[in-house]
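Researcher: Going back to the complex we discussed earlier. I've cleaned up the inputs and rechecked each line, so this should be the final set. Can you rerun the prediction on the complete assembly and write out the structure?
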Amino acid sequence: MELTTIAQRQSKWHNLGKQINKSRFLIAMIIPAVVFYFIFCYIPMYGVLMAFTKYYPKLGIWGSLTQHFVGFDNFSLIFNSDPTFLNVLRNTVLIGFGKIIISFVSSIVVALLINDLRMRRFKKTAQIIVTFPHFLSWVVLAGFINALFSRTGVIDDIIVALGGNRINFLSNGNFFLALIFSSDVWKEAGWSSIIYLATMAGISPELYEAADIDGATRFQKTWHITLPGIKPTAVLLLILSVGGILSAGFDQIFNLYNPLVYDNVDILDTYIYRQTFQEMINPGIGTAIGLFKSLVSFVLVVVVDRVAKLCGERGII
Amino acid sequence: MNPLKKIIPLACLILSAASLMCCQKNNAGNDAYTEDGKLKISMRNLYFESWAGGDVYTDTIQDKFKVSITPSTYSYNDWTSQVSAAVNAGNLTDVFQFNVTQFNFANSYKFWAEGQVTKALPDDLSAWPNVKSLVDNTTDIDSLKIDGHLYGLPIAKNIAEPKVNYSPFTYVYRRDWAKTWGVYQDNDVYTWDQFTKLVATFNTKLNPTGNADKYAMADVEWGFPSLTNFYKQVPHCFAFDETAKKYVGNFATDGYVQGMDLAKKYVDSKVYGYDQYNATEGGARKAYESNKCGIFYENLSLSNYQAIRAALSTANTLDANFQVDDAAAIMKVKGPDGKYALEGTDNWFSMSLFNYDISDTKMKKILDLLDYLLGEEGTKLAVYGKAGYDYTEDSDGGITLSDNGWPIGDDGKYVAKTNGAKYLRYVATLGSDYALKDPLTDKAAYAVVSSWDKEMSDAAAASTLRVFKEKAEVMWLSTNLKDTYEGALLENANDEVIRYCYGKDDKTTYLSSVTGGQWPGVLAEVNKKLGYTI
Amino acid sequence: MEKKERHCLPKLPLRPHGTSNNQRFGGLDIFIFIILLLYVIAVIFPFYNAFVISISSESAYYNSDLLLWPQDITFEAYQSVFTNSAMWKGLGITMVLLIFGTAYQLFFTVITGYAMSREKWFGKNFVMNMILVTMFFGGGLVPYYYLIKDLGLYNTIWVMIIPGAIDTFNMLLMRNYFASLPKELEESARIDGANDVQIFVKVYLPLSLPMLATVGLFFAVGNWNSWYNGMLFVENSDLKPLQLVLREMIASISSSVESPTSKTYSEGLVMASIFFTIVPMMCFYPFLQKFFVKGIVVGAIKG
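Model: Rerun complete. Updated structure for the full complex:
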């Protein structure tokens, strides 16, 4: 019996060695990534512990942890005594969720429109034009939006020229929210539609010809052939974006907002940013909120991924 | 897959990563020297613009004091982020600047002093007489001392005469329009009735339909509503109630509400045509500079005022009758109580702070530098340049600028050049003392501002000027309250005021938000700490 | 390896399906056309507006009631921008980031994506879990700052390049793409005696060029627009990327701060600076667009 065990053990190691040898090229390929993630993601990870201390710059994180450990105080501070946090959370969910739905719908609609357009030259030009805004940074876009919608901007000028009253777009909380959504569509719908367009192009023409023979209207063809054809892609993209629901677009809001619309558009990331950078005394609070956000995002993605797998689609985890 | 199998390797990974960061190097306080024996000093300041050393004036200083300076600039938008990141990661430059009026500053200042982030100046500054006189002349300097030590150098705004203890927030207005429409008063002095009449006239003439994009009045964005100046007793959060002998919240006091209601009235009648509710900074001023606004409330520093005049001149080049003095006159308004009203302020809003890790030698070197620059010779270097090359001085001290050093540009003005000495001087003071000597100053603008200064000082002496200032005990570090509470309170209250003025909230909502919420608790604590009973 | 298999690419990826070219244009076609036309106009309009402002003089901007076309045309703003050395320095830095950064990121992301797409090799699951965790949990800024400092990256140009090596999202895209290519390719190459690296370089890489171009473009755009790392980790004003210079220009020092150097920028100047940063992209874009649309088409059909 002993002999077998030793032999078994030896062969286990031997097998391991063989396996490693077999995959040696792939392992070599993956080493840079491992090193990269280790250095830039795992080494700083102990920083989440900052959420559990009152941070003293001189002591660094370990020093603060050992000498000024406060446990969950930072968390209770956020949840219990700060009414802003719940407001921020609400905004984040609203904006994040809204953006997912709106961008989902708008990119599919744009794809359908371009797909069904029959003037070929215009189709190409249109595609080039509407996909371009994706490449602008929000810094630039903020400049554009201010130039258009500020009180001295051209939109208000047009309204007055047509006889109306000047509307303060950027000061009205509701308009501002609408602006957040519509500027997101303006920037991304064209780009997102590419993926759908490409998928639509891959749908077999025979299906359409068969539908023609059956006398289907264009609308019926869209509903029964095109849309189901893009379903797998759509689901994948939906999953990927749900994981980011709590991010809701930091860059956009950060560049556009001002303290007076915090009520309506302050999201978790902008709130964290202010807490971390402008709360000089206790950046631990910012870390605590960040940790909370990570946990929730993680749970969300796992849930959505499971749901997708149950529906038969391929997940990402 | 067995979840444990997933977690264990990850946990090992995380632990090993974390252990690497256990051995964090501690910053040694060793000075670094360049190859030729010069002491390296790094400085970061908001005003350094794109100065990166390398000019002959910086070299003069560097050679004289055997230092090598590495300057860098903050970007205003990201100032707080950049300082905060540097502090928290132990990556400060040797000298850095921070905005004291930022609401969190006093707490941070104390926190940094106690936490060995910033280094105290030597208690005895007599080796540096110029710096010493700067410090001694700083108002409320004791409130900046912790255990008797000063942990930073307040950057003086104004060291020219007359030294004033109020901040020049005031109204610039279109005297030319006032004259045309018959509401001008001599010497720009207006009683309250005359002022309101002028405002009403401007409103009718500029914005008759209520829809034009011209309007009577605009406040600089952070200063809205300026009209409360004439009614309120203190600028910010805590007003001392003499009868009740305790501190109350300022925003609910009768005076403040009165002023605010007037602002609301003006918003409703489109006098405040500029959208103060959502404004990015600079918009009101641009409107004024482009003939769209009749009265503009602003912090009238010399540089701001010069810029406004220059912009107005450019905007009106085609108008033969245009006089910039008439387009940017400074209004002197007496409030309902018959007195001028100005916010009292300290003569500084930011400080130069020193990294704790610098050695005493370095600190002394920096003070030597600053002392020299504040002195006569150093000032000449900063203002004029090198003697013999940029200027010549005759026996009675008259200065002649040379053509090499001070070429005249296309617009007939001197071309400014990068002068490192001038930038370095900003570490200690903003340079109001040499404004008259500086070739780059617009002399006409300077004359206007300094005559306004003089008139206000005379008014102060004659008690026709009411200066509203928070009491020192609640203002600063001696109680450390300002930032623990005033920061959030003030921001929220300011938001509330604007919401009320723009009709988003009614009076009841407004009052409850500036007396409820955090206010009762905070006021209780404030009063307790200062020894007043509730 | 003797035979290379290529899959047929569809000819014109965007031929409308379900309609034969013989049908006349119906009302629905006109409707679609109009909607798209409006959408296109809505996209172009902000650019046009910004351009008009950059060309008009400042007084025209403030004094005119409706600035729909350039008034009082002046090239002052553009002159200022082109003579502003800070903008050129920023451009130089951004070009470096663009070229080196994109190549660097592309290389690492692609090989990682490929490796992750292969089935069953030693350690694959471990690495996958490792990467997934980092998608959600991060240590925050302070330890990251310490790390940058300890690595000696602070205040150098490398801080804007090196930490960007692998973008997890794009890596997963590449992984999915490689995984969707037929297994037969790998199998047949293995039969021919190739090892993993050779399979990758000789078989998969040539097939995925359009996808590489697409992902490369993603990275390029990201590098062109980056400013955040520069804002935090770069003090030296010679190392500031273009977008950071632009950001500082768009918001100048508040007047509440008594500054000896009070600078404000006219609206026209701001718009001209914006164009300075986007015109290069606008020029390259139409040409590149064809290229990567094809890439996504191929990718989507396979996936």
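Model: Worth noting: The two ends of chain A are 42 Å apart (CA to CA).
Researcher: Good, that matches what I expected from the previous run.
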